[in-house]
Each structure stands twice: as structure tokens, then as C-alpha cells.
Design goal:
The complex is a heterodimer of chains A (145) and B (401). With 145 residues, chain A is mainly β. Chain A has one helix and nine strands. Chain A has one helix at residues 19-25; strands at residues 9-12, 31-35, 41-42, 57-61, 65-74, 88-95, 100-107, 120-127, 133-139. The longest helix of chain A has 7 residues, at 19-25. The termini of chain A are far apart. Chain B is of the alpha/beta class and 401 residues long. Helix content of chain B is 31%, strand content 17%. Chain B has twelve helices and twelve strands. Chain B has helices at 32-47, 67-73, 93-103, 128-131, 158-173, 177-195, 210-215, 280-293, 310-319, 328-334, 350-353, 360-371; strands at 14-21, 56-60, 80-84, 109-117, 136-139, 218-220, 223-224, 233-242, 254-261, 302-305, 383-388, 391-396. Chain B has a nine-stranded mixed β-sheet with strand order 3-2-4-8-1-9-12-11-10, sandwiched between helices. In chain B, strand 11 (383-388) and strand 12 (391-396) form a beta hairpin. The longest helix of chain B has 19 residues, at 177-195. Chain B is globular, with a radius of gyration of 20 Å. The relative contact order of chain B is 0.19. Classes of the chains: A mainly beta (145), B alpha/beta (401). At the A-B interface, strand 1, strand 5, strand 6 and strand 7 of A face strand 5, helix 5 and strand 6 of B. Strand 1 of chain A pairs parallel with strand 5 (136-139) of chain B, so a sheet runs across the interface.
């Protein structure tokens, strides 16, 4: 009797810096570093403030709100890990806090690939093509639905 | 911008005088080590230079064949070696490094090479290279395409990110799908036409019409099959010599009249965090190169514009001054990049239709244009631009005195 194949997952490398980030991401929360010295906030994580170079920063939970900047429908699987997940949508989001965030885009109703730049999105926990449950962007239902 | 040299002040100290390459194929049946040996030997022969003359090597940091491996094959005794990072983004700079070493009198004869089994081994259009193929793949670092913040969401190929760049371009400049795909299609079709005049091109003999381009299956919307670079096997090498060694070489020199390795936050990665590659920082890098070389975009005769996808050709036309910001799609519809256009580009077929040797085949073509040896030779060549994102090298047929 053959053993069913274990699905191949794409897991993020976790470093000392990003451990809190991924802990929160797996709970559906986005954490952003915020500089105590100048108030800047940024993503992806790095050891010091990109604007004033201070190392005095802390993690802050993001609002989860953002605006869609761009999206693409991925039809082709470029790694066997995602072979069972195509098609899926990738999206670039401008967070309400300012930084840019990359993730999948799903939709509470309708096809996510039909979302347009400028549409509001919310960050929620959900399954990804890498086989994980992670915070990602979800198209908010439109006023007309 | 803080660069203050007077234009044309730099007199080139070095020129490319020879090129060599292996067959470009999908399945070389040989190791990258062997391919490198063949390409380097061919380049030395083309340059009329002896192995014992070579005292410098420059390569891509991505190459599996390091300098020590080359020295097992060739009894060179080096005084200089170097590597350029960031893959395709840095590739033009190998010529810049060779020129800098020669100008500093740290070397006199430098070989630049790239060897890549990009079809049968390392496939850049897939993520096994950076993420491996083990039971659980780990996405590392913070650089797309397959870094920790991208891989888990299914980002596994550079072209996915370039599709997102294209969508932002469309929004920023108000370009609809029809117009955009017509513009990008010109690139794909015209580069295939160049490849059909180049016997070395992998796609030689395979016609591509505008209808074929539009009918192709979509890969990462709106990009389709013919918007993407080939994955091929092959190696290319070039020989760069000091100015006093140029006389007596079998072929005319391609003077290295300028080099810029532009780099700024988020430029290095194929990612979504920085501005598009037609933005101010990239244009400043281009201006830096033009000032060094003492020429303007209007004095560029032909160009090798890095085509990881058709998207980078579109953006390059704006970055490097051939079209206004947001207008390259219109430029392509009006002019294209064919032999009768104001700027013929990628005249051997490029990554889309000749081969993918991480830009080295396109630098070899730029040298051929300087030397009058291209299969799509432009009539009068003064300056040939080689550019990729924020990096560029200018090759010139004359050397100011």
C-alpha cells in the first residue's frame, strides 16, 4: 500500500529578528516595526529604522486595513509545492500605516482577480499556496453586493 | 545628483576585443565547468590572445564555475579577480570591473565569463534554485522572488513580480490591457525576428506573429508565454584588454567608455517594495553613465536592454532616456525595436529568443555590433548601450583623444 504524498509546504526562514513577526502572522495579525525616535514604520523587517537609523523600535500590531495597488493571477506553477494551488492571486497592498505588503489576495465574495487598484482590503488569516495559514489580504465586499 | 565629472572627460583605458560562446541549447549534456572552458577558449582565440597573457578574471557571483575552477582548465596566473553580485541586475558591470582593473593597472588582459545550464540544471523561472526541493522548502531572506516574505504566498518566479510591476505601471500611467499587450507584443515579435536571422539562437527557425503572441497561454496575468525569458544551457566569455594591446587584434575594439553599478534600497531584489525601475534613482544612474561616456541617448546606435521579461524592456526605454516616463508603451507602438526603428535593440534575439546566459550573450551581441559582426548589423555604430535596471555599460567604436 503506497503512503499518500505529504504536501510540500513553503515555510519562511525564521530569524531572531522575525520570530515575533511570524508568530503573529500565523495568528492572522500583521506586526510592523515602529521607530521610537522618529515614528517611522516599515516592512519587511530590518534591524534599524530606515529613516533615522535608530535601533530603538518596537513591534506594533497593524490596523489590518489597506488599499490594493496591483494584483496578478498566477496560472503557472513555478515550483512543485504550488502545483496543486494554481491558479492563485498575488497582490501588492498599501497598508493604512504606509508600508507596502505583498501577499495573496482572496475574496469574501466573487473572484479576487477582479479586484481593482484602489479597492479596500482587510488582512485576515487564511490558507496560502505555500500550504500555511498566514495573514493575507482579503477583498472587502463591495457596497453593491 | 552629486556626480560632477565633465561629460566625455574619461578616455577609455580598455576595450573588449574578443568573444566566445558555446552552442545555446535546451540540454547541453555537459557540465557548466566544461561549457565555461569551451567559451573561454573560443574567446581567447577570437581575441588573438594567449592563455599566458591573461591576468584577470571577472564573473557573476551566481556562477557555479569560480575562478579556481577556471585555473584548473587554463594555466593562467592572475593578478586580479572579481565577481559582481545581484545576477542579471549587476551583469553589465563585469565589463566595468574589467575596465576598472585595467585602468588601475592591476591587470592587462581580463576574461569575463558566464556559464549556465539554465535549462537542464538551474532554472531561474522556477524556485528550486533558491528554495530547494526537499521535504519542506524554506524561503530565506527578505528578497523576492522567493524570500521569506514572498515564498509562502506562492511567489516562486521573478516574472510574477514583474507582472505586478506591470499592473502598477498600468495604474500609474493609465494604460489599458489592449494597448499594453500590443506594445509588449512588438518586443516579443521583433526579437524573434532578430533570432530568425541568428543561427545561434535557440528559437531560430520558429516564427512568432503578433497573433501567436496574443493567443499564447497566460502565465502570470497579463504576461503570457512569449513575454518570458528562455531557460537555456550555454556559456559566453569576453576578453578585455588594455588600450596599448588593442592594435594587432583580429577584430576591432569595443571601447568600454563608461560603467555604472547603480544600487539603492530595494533595487537589488526583484520585489515590490521600491519604486518602479523607471523612477528617479534609476534615471540618475543612467545620467551618470551618459556623462561618463560623453554621449546622450540620441547618440546610442543600438542597445542590449535586459529582457528578463518584456516588462524590463518597457521600463528600460524610459530609464535610459529613449521614451518619456509613462510613454514607452506608446513609443513601442510607434517605433518598436526593429532594424528600422530609432533604437534597434536586442538584435541577436535577446533572452526572449536567442538564449539566457544571464545577459552575457547580449553583451557579446553589443560587442559584435561595435565590430560589424552582428547577424542584424546596424549601419553606423558609434555607441552601444548595455543596460539592466540600474546598471549599465557603454561600448564605443571610437576612443576620444
Amino acid at each position: 500500500m503506497t503512503t499518500p504524498a505529504v504536501p510540500l509546504r513553503i515555510v519562511p526562514e525564521r530569524t531572531a529578528l522575525t520570530e515575533p513577526y511570524w508568530d503573529a502572522a500565523e495568528r492572522g495579525l500583521l506586526m510592523l516595526q515602529t521607530c521610537v525616535a522618529c515614528g517611522s514604520t516599515w516592512h519587511p523587517p530590518q534591524p534599524s529604522c530606515p529613516d533615522c537609523r535608530s535601533t530603538d523600535w518596537h513591534w506594533q500590531e497593524a490596523s489590518g486595513r489597506g488599499e490594493l495597488l496591483a494584483s496578478t493571477l498566477v496560472r503557472h506553477a513555478g515550483h512543485r509545492a504550488v502545483a496543486d494551488h494554481v491558479p492563485y492571486v498575488l497582490a501588492v497592498v498599501r497598508l493604512a500605516e504606509g508600508p507596502i505588503f505583498l501577499s495573496n489576495l482572496t475574496a469574501a465574495a466573487g473572484a479576487p482577480e477582479l479586484a481593482r487598484p484602489g479597492d479596500p482590503v482587510r488582512l485576515e488569516l487564511g490558507p496560502t499556496p505555500g500550504g500555511l495559514m498566514l495573514v493575507h489580504a482579503v477583498v472587502a465586499p463591495t457596497a453593491t453586493t | 545628483m552629486h556626480w560632477s565629472a565633465q561629460p566625455g572627460l574619461v578616455v577609455p583605458d580598455a576595450a573588449v576585443v574578443g568573444i566566445g560562446q558555446t552552442e545555446f541549447s535546451r540540454g547541453s549534456g555537459r557540465s557548466e565547468w566544461e561549457l565555461a572552458g569551451e567559451a573561454i577558449a573560443a574567446a581567447l582565440d577570437d581575441a588573438g590572445v594567449e592563455v599566458s597573457d591573461v591576468d584577470g578574471l571577472v564573473r557573476s557571483s551566481y556562477d557555479s564555475v569560480d575562478e579556481a575552477a577556471v585555473l584548473r582548465l587554463f594555466p593562467m596566473e592572475l593578478g586580479f579577480y572579481g565577481e559582481v553580485g545581484y545576477g542579471g541586475l549587476g551583469a553589465p558591470a563585469v565589463l566595468g570591473h574589467a575596465a576598472a582593473a585595467i585602468a588601475a593597472k592591476q591587470a592587462r588582459v581580463v576574461v569575463c565569463y558566464r556559464s549556465l545550464n539554465g535549462y537542464s540544471a538551474t532554472r531561474y523561472g522556477r524556485a528550486e534554485r533558491s528554495m530547494g526541493d526537499a521535504a519542506a522548502v524554506v524561503a530565506r531572506g527578505d528578497r523576492a522572488p522567493s524570500g521569506a516574505f514572498a515564498g509562502p504566498y506562492g511567489v516562486v518566479a521573478p516574472a510574477q513580480i514583474m507582472a505586478l510591476w506591470l499592473r502598477r505601471y498600468q495604474t500609474d500611467y493609465g494604460v489599458g490591457d489592449e494597448q499594453l499587450l500590443s506594445a509588449l507584443g512588438r518586443i516579443a515579435v521583433e526579437q524573434r525576428a532578430y533570432a530568425n536571422r541568428n543561427p545561434a539562437a535557440v528559437m531560430n527557425g520558429k516564427q512568432l506573429t503578433a497573433e501567436d503572441y496574443r493567443a499564447a497561454r497566460r502565465i502570470y496575468e497579463p504576461l503570457g508565454l512569449y513575454d518570458l525569458a528562455l531557460e537555456t544551457d550555454g556559456a559566453v566569455a569576453m576578453v578585455v584588454v588594455a588600450d596599448d594591446l588593442v592594435a594587432g587584434r583580429p577584430h576591432p575594439p569595443a571601447w568600454i567608455s563608461g560603467s555604472v553599478q547603480g544600487l539603492y534600497r530595494f533595487a537589488e531584489s526583484i520585489s515590490v517594495y521600491g519604486p518602479l525601475r523607471n523612477s528617479a534613482q534609476y534615471r540618475a544612474s543612467a545620467e551618470r553613465l551618459y556623462r561618463q561616456a560623453g554621449c546622450s541617448p540620441g547618440e546610442v546606435s543600438v542597445a542590449s536592454l535586459y529582457d528578463a521579461t518584456t516588462v524590463t524592456v518597457l521600463l528600460s526605454l524610459e530609464t535610459w532616456g529613449f521614451a518619456e516616463e509613462g510613454q514607452a508603451w506608446r513609443y513601442l507602438l510607434d517605433h518598436g525595436i526593429g532594424p528600422d526603428s530609432p533604437l534597434p535593440a536586442n538584435t541577436s534575439g535577446g533572452h526572449l529568443s536567442e538564449a539566457y546566459v544571464h545577459y552575457f550573450s547580449m553583451m557579446a551581441e553589443a560587442v559584435r555590433q561595435c565590430q560589424g559582426r552582428s547577424t542584424s548589423q546596424v549601419g553606423t555604430v558609434r555607441n552601444v548601450l548595455c543596460c539592466s535596471g540600474s546598471s549599465g555599460v557603454m561600448l564605443s567604436t571610437t576612443r576620444p583623444r
